[in-house]
Amino acid sequence: MRTEDVSAGLERGELIKGVLRINPKKYKEAFVPSPDGSADIFLDGIAARNRALNGDVVVVKVLPPEQWATTAEDPTGYHSSPLQIGKRGYNLHELTKIGQLKTVVIIFEQKHSRAASGFLKFLPNKNFAMFSPVDHRIPRVNVPLVDCPADFVSRPGDYENVLFICRITHWPADNNFAEGRLAKTLGQAGEIEPETEGIMTEYDVDFSEFSEEVLNCLPQDLPWSIPAHELSRRRDLRKECVFTIDPATARDLDDALSCKQLSDGNFEVGVHIADVSYFVEEGSVLDQIAGKRATSVYLVQKVIPMLPRLLCEELCSLNPLTDRLTFSVIWKLSPEGKILSEWFGRTVICSCIKMSYDHAQSMIEAPDKHFSAEELPPCSTNHRIHEIKEAILNLHNIAKQLRAQRFESGALQLNQLKLSFSLDKESSMPQGCYVYQYQDSNKLVEEFMLLANMAAAHQIYRTYPELAILRRHPPPQSKMVDDLQEFCDQMGLDIDLNSSRGLHRSLNENLGNDEYAAARREVLTHMCSRAMQMASYFCTGALKDENSFHHYALNVPLYTHFTSPIRRYVDVIVHRLLAASLSELLYCIEPPTEVHKLASHCNDRKTASKRVQELSSELFFAVFVKECGPLDSEAMVMGVLDQSFDVLVLRYGVQKRIYCNSLEGLKAVHFRKVGKRPEMTLVWEQADPSKESTQQVYYPKQLSVC
Questions:
Q1: What is the pLDDT of residues 266-322, one digit of tens each?
Q2: In what helix (H) or strand (E) does residue 519 lie, and over which residues does it extend?
Q3: What are phi and psi of 382, to 5 degrees?
Q4: Residue 246 in marked binding region
């Protein structure tokens, strides 16, 4: 289809453009969001996707209403009510707004890398082998035998458990199989490094070493010190009590805090962010590679940095007892957290101590305790430990006020359990795993980072209303919210989904106080998260309706990212905009459409990075279970399908799908739906034939499994 025909079809509403999402657990099902964001629209079967892969931006054609059809399992594995093409009838009045999909007309933008990890299968009497991707959403690929190992034809069995990387080069329209070339032999499946490289390659993560040309952009005379002329143009905060609070293992320290009480009872609070833009010159080769990578990628065992380590871990990192360049926002705050004044500017600091979250937490929990030097990391002699403790306690008290005000004003937080690992120092193999504990010290840092990000958003939008890069979060899909509300009502769960404020209050107040209340909250948090749309970066000049700038979860009109420029490229752009806004210089002559493209690219890389991080965690958990299992844990049912059910494993915070045909001793499975509530009855064999079979009825509620 010609470009002009696509444009005309989109204008008339005959075509719909959106990002294709393929169900990872049912690869024949795919989804595209409806134009108004109210629901997902379902494409049934591989042929309907017309060779598009997960994440591609596609244009699809709409069928007339009489050809519409029924529901499907949603992309995360639960029955909802997206619009579908198929052979199972549907209530047409629900679909009159949008129509129904026929097929993908064109791949508008190819986002998927077309690379995959997988296995080779020998095909007798063929001049090609069959490559089967680990990810079933990617088609099987014919690869020429000349790409295969030299002894593959004579000894194919040697390669049954070997992972390869394959890149799709062509996919004929009339063939279920693609064509491609082998790019690399990774190693044995199930081993951490081969699996990790496969994950990163598939999601197009650049993990190569930085080139000599890039490294030449960095200061060459080491050790580096701040030039005198640069010091003279900055506000000097080196004598102030400034400190960092980070995970104990962190090496890229983006942010620091300061807090001192004023004579009038108010507080001067500062958020000081590494001035990465000083080192990353706009338009340089270093800038280009940082923009391409767009984000650091955090794996369980290592970090793939956005910037060279000399910047990430040394020159930009706010390491203790070292002069560092920063971009600061400093407020005068009342004890209740009310902003009385605000100042932005370039500064220089010298952090007096590198605190971990646990160090700060110990001070919060024991405010009257005298902490000795031996209990804390090395500290500057210019600041007493008591002074640092008082600053942390004051920040904690203000943060509590800010947090309470945010949620009272309608903010929503859907934090899900995060699995962490203890690794062997030599082999990096998992020795243990645990659910990460989110403490008051984490909340303290979070509140002031949010405050700084909101302040930066207002500053750059006020100065550059057409060029500001902000972060928006649309409200949840109304169809999924309606379905979830009906489901909760039938389950007897008192959940208010009418607003972000009501939902937050429900999840924190209405789920009882028994021993399973926390687990019930986690399950419902997961379920509510599925109805949420993703937050995204955008250029303000590309969206004309200011109401669409709103951030639903935070319930604020303007928001951006300013506080992590070492690991996020958007933050570097925001720093440049801020600097320009303060000097009244024009920052960017590119049109908003180009800035919006950059924002879109950063969205893509952030999404990929998040998925790679999740897959890395899943890999390490699988290796841990293999090495240390079997593991027993209570779990809570999250969702029920006709032949499987999903659970949240409470001890580890991981979701797992349990297939009924893999359960030993299972005699029969009976599935039905009572309204929106799916219900499964499992009938178990008895060891004693004279006794009746045992029945268990499963639906999303408390359940013990092993």
A1: 999 999 999 999 999 999 999 999 999 999 999 999 999 999 999 999 999 999 999
A2: helix 517-531
A3: -80, -10
A4: yes
Between helices 592-628 and 569-583, what is the axis angle to 10°?
A: 140
With 0-12 CB in 10 A as exposed, 13-18 as middle and 19+ as buried, what is 373?
exposed
- Candidates 335, 331, 320; CA nearest to 396 is 335
| Cis peptide upstream of residue 465 (ω within 30 degrees of 0) | no
Question: What CA–CA distance (Å, rounded) separates 658 from 680?
Answer: 13
| Per-residue 3-state assignment (H helix, E strand, C coil) for 364-400 | HHCCCCCCCHHHCCCCCCCCCHHHHHHHHHHHHHHHH
Q: Judge contact between 232 and 348, C-beta under 8 A.
A: no
Residues 633-655 as b/e (b if ≥16 CB within 10 A, e otherwise) read ebbbbbbbbeebbbbbbbebbbb
What CA–CA distance (Å, rounded) separates 148 from 155?
Answer: 11
Separation between Cα atoms, residue 30 and residue 50, nearest integer Å:
12
In the block, tokens 């899943």 appear at: 618
> By the 8 A CB rule, do 466 and 549 touch?
no
Tell me the pTM.
0.90
Q: What is the DSSP letter of 157?
A: G
Residues 443-494 pLDDT 10s? 999 999 999 999 999 999 999 999 999 999 999 888 888 888 887 887 778 8
pLDDT above 80 (res 512): no
Who contacts 175 (Cβ-Cβ below 8 Å, separation ≥6)? none
Confirm whether residue 494 is marked as ligand binding: no
Number of C-beta neighbours around residue 155 at 10 A: 11
Tokens encoding 508: 């924190």
Predicted local distance difference test score (pLDDT) of residue 313: 94
Q: Which residues pair with 674 in a beta bridge?
A: 677
Strands 339-350 and 235-236, bridge-based pairing: parallel
